[in-house]
Records
---
Amino acid sequence: MDSQLDVLRRELVEVRGIPLFWSIAEQWSQVESFEARPDDLLIATYPKSGTTWVSEIVDLIYNNGDAEKSRRDVIYMRVPFMELAVPGRTSGVEKLNNMPSPRLVKTHLPVQLLPSSFWKNNCKMIYVARNAKDVVVSYYYFYQMAKLHPEPGTWEEFLDKFMTGKVSFGSWYDHVKDWWEKRKDYRILYLFYEDMKEDPKREIKKLLKFLEKDLPDEVVNKILHHSSFKVMKQNPKTNYTTVTQEEMDHSVSPFMRKGISGDWKNHFTVAQYKTFEEHYEEKMKDTALKFRSEI
């Protein structure tokens, strides 16, 4: 690479039909052959669906609510993004290979691209899904500020790319549906962002049960506090302000932007809403999976 700019804003490259960052595609063999350990916990999401939020909650659970322990490092070091590879940086796979067990592993991969070792080892997995309209709005802002993505174009253009699955990590529809199906055969806790917004304590208790952890109520309340949007937005260990401005420009849009449900109403025109809803009905007609687009 001649310069940092050569790394950024490049077109996506398909791996088995799924558009990914070119740098992930280039290093794909190391992702595919990644060796999961039986006590790994995988946190899987489509981008902009509450990944950092649930990662922080789980890290706090693993540390029995000790917020100081969770401040030991930035979130992307505590919960490495497995498939991420950027030239000149330690890849997610390398970070994970050097980590002691039990590891927390983050992925945005659709089920068909997940390394087979996770299925073979029957690892526990947490999947968080968020309604499509809020995801596309959040993703549009993220594309603007996180420059490993190609240029997003206009809102109208980006919405079209999202609907046709021509964004990083592919189709939202396939992603949420395929993970939903997988939960029937594997140890997957499938959570909804909207449920987490509505009653975070209830969802933390679901996580505790799934992880077979028993924590007293005062510790659960501490986890609730430290994983709140307000606290995480101010916490440099979770808000991604430690990433260089060349890579993530928070002046364009902060990484932790609003953290609400229903912001799509401020962005969709009436015509866009109508087109999107018709397309959505068609794409989701073959599943029992249901989303709330506001709470």
---
Amino acid sequence: MTGNSSSSRLDNATLSLFQNTNTSVAISLVYLVVVAINLVGNGFSIWILLFRTSPKTPSIVFMIHLTLTDLALGAALPFQIAYQLQGYQWNLGPNMCSFLTLIFYTNMYCSILTMMAIGIDRYLGIVRPMLFRQIRRRKSMAVVSCFLMWGVVLSVLYPLMTTDLTFYIPELHITTCFDVLKKDMLPNQAAWAAFLFSMVFLLFLFPFCVTVFCYITVIRKLASDSKTAQKKRAIRLAIIVLVVFTFCFAPNNILLMTHTILRLFYEKSAYQAYKLSLCLSCLNSCLDPFIYYFASKDFRQKLRQIVNLHTLSSVDSTKMECKESTLYSPHCTVEGQNREHRKVCLTPSTSQLKEPE
């Protein structure tokens, strides 16, 4: 987004970016990797969440919502790849440009808000389990929250839905898509300031602060408990979420604010750095399945069953448990005298084992 005037004259830095083949190829390669990991990882995740996980708790609803937005991004990125490999020439018209741009940015900000919602759900379940028990268990509340997220994001991004985001550059004879925005997209600088403030502070900084507070409080709460496994998972989940915020979302939003201020007030540009930061923002869709793994015990158990990683149903693990036991369990039998009286434990299925959330 260069925020240029209504004339077609661009600054040299932006023009050089459009002519830099190496940059466009490098970004396209990153997007190709993201698409492959995104579609495989999130396709597998949505199958587990929709068809193998029950009941649909609020956390599962949030994860389904996050997975669907990630899959939408994975479906939209091939168009961005083709656009860049064709030398930033957009051939699909302004409506398709607006639609795909909206998918790109709604994925980013809906992901941020959904991670905040998952963090709040963890906070309510661990720190305030009794006070918010009824609210937290209502699946309808999670569904309504997802619709509210979309309402907030689409309200902030409304200018992108009502503007022709294509731009013809006569110097290069190309038509770009969302790489050049006119200053008259919004009526005045106050409107630009409100648009920028809403994107950076309302859709990024505020959710980030809430998420950090929730996970720090959860970790402090679990630190005094004896459930070390649960504490380790909570710490890993917090680390993954903070990594996504720090390395995927923060650079893009900071550079967005920096570039827009430079263009509006100083006629300078940081667009090349901002363009590269968009690659980082897409990586979140590859990391989200790890969030599901550490945030949902049901998802964890179903995944272990599918990939044959049952913690207790493995023959090797049960043999070891029986061997280390000092007392003979009534569920253990002797399997043949010619096998040195090896014991095999008949353990229940991992799907029947429940651990605290």
